[in-house]
Design goal:
It contains two helices and four strands. The chain is an alpha+beta fold and 114 residues long. The chain has a domain at 37-95 and 103-114: Translation Initiation Factor IF3 (2-Layer Sandwich), CATH 3.30.110. The longest helix is centred in the middle third of the chain and has 14 residues, at 67-80.
Length: 114
Amino acid sequence: MRALLLVVVVLAGCRTEIAPFVKKPDAAPKVRLVDQGCEATDYPAGTDVPAGAKNIGWVKVDRLENDDATFAALREAVCKAGGNAFSQMRWIREAGASVADPPVHLEANAWLVP
C-alpha cells in the first residue's frame, strides 16, 4: 500500500505540461505616408538614437518666416544630407547677440538610423 501511494505521488509530481506551438500571424508592415518621400525622426539627445546609427554631422538651416517652416526645412536638410533622424536640435544666435535677440539658425545633429 505504501509503495502504491509513493508511485502515485511521484507520478503526480512529475507531470509536465508543454504548451502547444502556435504561430502568431505576421504583423502588418508599418506604412509611413510622407509628402516629400523622406521622414526624419527627432530624438531629444544623441544617447536616445538607436544602436547602430551612423552620425552624419551637424546640419544648419536659416530661420524662416515661422518655426514650423524652419523645422520642415531642417528635416529636408537632414534628408538631403543622407540621414533619416536628427538629435540635439538647438537655435543659434549671431555671435555677440543678446539673449533678447531672436535666433537666426536652427541646427541639429543628423543620423542615419538602420
